[in-house]
Amino acid sequence: MIWMCIALAFVVNVAHESRARADGGILFVGKVEPREREVIRATIVDTARRFGWTVTEKTFNEKDNEEVLACLRIDRPYVCARRVLKANDIDRLAVVDVGVTRGSDGKPLVVVTQQVIVPGAEVAFIGRRTCEQCDEAGLRHHVATLTTKLIEDAATGSHKTMLQVTSDPPGAWITLDGANAGSTNATIPTHPGKHTVMLRAPGYETEVRDVDAAEGRVAQVNVTMRRHHDTRRGGGGRGVLPWLLVGGGVGLVVGGGALVALAEDPVPGVPQSPTLRTTTTRGVVGIAAGVAVGGVGAYLLLRPKKRTSIPTVSIDRHGATVGWCRAF
Question: Looking at the structure, do residues 12 and 70 belong to the same domain, yes or no?
Answer without folding.
Answer: yes
